[in-house]
């Protein structure tokens, strides 16, 4: 095991605490009741289908896995906050992914909204996606970044490679 020192361990512990605090404050998921997202007509099948579609789009656009994870988090936070209609689910999903890409990806990697919409086959216009972008930003108060599962994996991996006392490392082994 490589020794990075107490300062590195403390920095990682601080990162973990910050990520947990942000997740606690912002984490929302849609609640399902009778096979539908509560307060909507979106079925569990439609939701699962759109999550898989986001994964395929993320691979198609060659986005980082972190971008896909953040896109799903943005989608979940919105669906937990508004009464969305099924006909807009794909528009919300691709817009969530585009917003996540704007947060995580290099500008050179992100194609124009028009190109992304065409390549995705989502059948929504650039204007509709940009309008949805404004709605999502407004509903989430422009606070798009929340801790994702991938963030915790990265922190956990780094913690494993630092010199932690056995008693403290046992806490992290439980994850």
Keywords:
two-stranded antiparallel ribbon; 64% helix; 175 residues; mainly alpha
Secondary structure elements and pairings:
Elements: H1 5-26, E1 32-33, E2 36-37, H2 44-60, H3 65-79, H4 89-104, H5 113-120, H6 126-139, H7 149-160, H8 166-173
Antiparallel strand pairs: 1-2
Helix pairs in contact: 1-7, 2-3, 2-4, 3-4, 4-6
What's a quick, concise take on this entry?
With 175 residues, the protein is an all-alpha fold.
Structure description:
This protein is mostly helical and 175 residues long. Helices cover 64% and strands 2% of the residues. The chain has 8 helices and 2 strands. The protein has helices spanning 5-26, 44-60, 65-79, 89-104, 113-120, 126-139, 149-160, 166-173; strands spanning 32-33, 36-37. Strands 1-2 form a two-stranded antiparallel sheet. Strand 1 (32-33) and strand 2 form a beta hairpin. Helix 1 (5-26) packs antiparallel against helix 7. It is globular and about 55 Å long.
Widest sheet: strand ordering? 1-2
Number of discrete helical segments:
8
Please tell me how large the radius of gyration is.
18 Å
Helix content: 55-70%
What fraction of residues sit in β-strands? Answer: under 5%
Structural class: mainly alpha
Overall mean pLDDT: 81
Give the strand tally: 2
- Overall form: globular
Q: How many angstroms does the end-to-end distance come to?
A: 20 Å
